[in-house]
Amino acid sequence: MIVANKEVSWHTLQLMSKLANTLKPKDSMTLSQWADNYMVLPEGSNEAGRYSTDTIPYQKEIMDAITDPEVVDVSVMSSAQVGKTTIIMCGIGYFIDYEPATQMLVMPTIQIAEKFSKTRLSQMIADIPSLACKVADPKAKNSNNTILLKSYPGGSIAIGGANSPSSLASDPRRIIWMDETDRFPESAGSEGNPIKLAEKRATSYWNKKHIKTSTPTIAGRSKIEDAYNKGSMEEWCTQCPECGAFQPYDFKRIKFDTVSMVCRECGCISTERQWKDSNHKWIAKHPERKRARSFRLNELASPFVDWKEIIENFKDADDKLKRFHDPEDMKVFINTVLGEVWEETAYVEDSVDEDSLESRAEVYEAEIPEGVLLLTAAVDVQDNRFEVEIRGWTRNYESWGIYKTEIYGELITDEPWNQLEAYLAQPLHFEDGTELNVAGIAIDTGGHFTNKTYKWIKHMKSKGKKCYGIKGYAGKPDIPLIYKKTVVDITEERGGKKVVVDRTLIHIIGVDSGKEDIMNRLSLEETGPGYCHFPVGEGRGYDSEYFKGLTCEHQINKKVNGMIKKVWVKKSGARNEPLDLFNYNYAVVEILRPEWDKLESKIRAGVNYMKKSKRQRTVRRSIEGIER
Question: For the whole model, what pTM was predicted?
Answer without folding.
Answer: 0.63
